[in-house]
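Example record

Each entry pairs one chain with its bound ligand, adenosine-5'-triphosphate.
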Amino acid sequence: INTIGVLTSGGDAPGMNAAIRAVVRMGLAKGKRVMGIRKGYNGLINEDIIDMNARSVSDIIQRGGTILYTARCQDFFTIEGQTKGANICRKYGIDGLVIIGGDGSFKGAAALSELGINTIGVPGTIDLDINCTDYTIGFDTAVNTAMEAIDKIRDTSTSHERCSVVEVMGRHAGYIALWCGICNGSEDVLLPEKGKISTKQIINNIIANRKKGKKHHLIIVAEGVGGTEKLAREIEEKTGIETRATILGHLQRGGSPSAVDRMHASMMGAYAVDLLCEGKSNRVVAYKDGKYVDFDIEEGRNMIKVIDDRKFQVSQILDKYTL
Ligand code: ATP
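Structure tokens for the complex follow.
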């Protein structure tokens, strides 16, 4: 490998900058030329490519977002788009490419690898929804952001003796919701992985809690379950308790990355460069059972990950105290 390219793709996540920095600095330390590709696969196809040196990544480890920008790219779903991408890599001498992004971005990486460009995927998404890894860059910061926001909602909800229904991100996965369920001590948490809890059951729970003297009732809804506004309206109609819906939205994707995110991003970025220098391709970096490892992209995508049942059980038990 002579020249390493790096790009961020799909949804952004705090810590992506730390990963870019690690790829650039580790690449340079190994005597490679490093190029940044802006705006994901779009930037590759449009030749939005810049030279990176050690200074290009100064003062970014603490910043949210991604200095390389990110995008979704329709053209890359086609063989023509992928071939164009591979040819542009060759034109710039990029023989190794690190793709920081989610599952969709790794499919693009696998396609480029088929076309002769060595590619390595680094898991970057707040959703934690990449099957082969216990950790994805951005999750810890996003959970902390959501948790702090929900603490604030809880303050005002308690003062007014209201019920709050808060929706957190996660796409089709409920990891952020499950963590907030425990860390915010919510009364209920609705996860896509756990099927639907009936509105009637939720309402009965609220009424029972009111009778016990609870001043607030906090329900966390995962994005993959949705229906947050409707649920809030139904609760208010059926219980007479003032109920507010809050959809936290994109604030969960921003902010300075936590130490956990900076650490994983730095280690995974460095690992990706090691793999390229060993001549590997079509691999995804993962954190599994406390170690950094790598898998074939296809093999990694076909692995199965299940949400932690014990955490869900504990959240339910701790939420339903009987004083
Ligand atoms: P996140 O889940 O955090 O949003 P992601 O990487 O899964 O990240 P996607 O929108 O699924 O986000 O994918 C990002 C980009 O990767 C797409 O816009 C497209 O350019 C490329 N991509 C996705 N799927 C494929 C595929 N099957 N073949 C080639 N390229 C793909």
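The chain has a mean pLDDT of 96.
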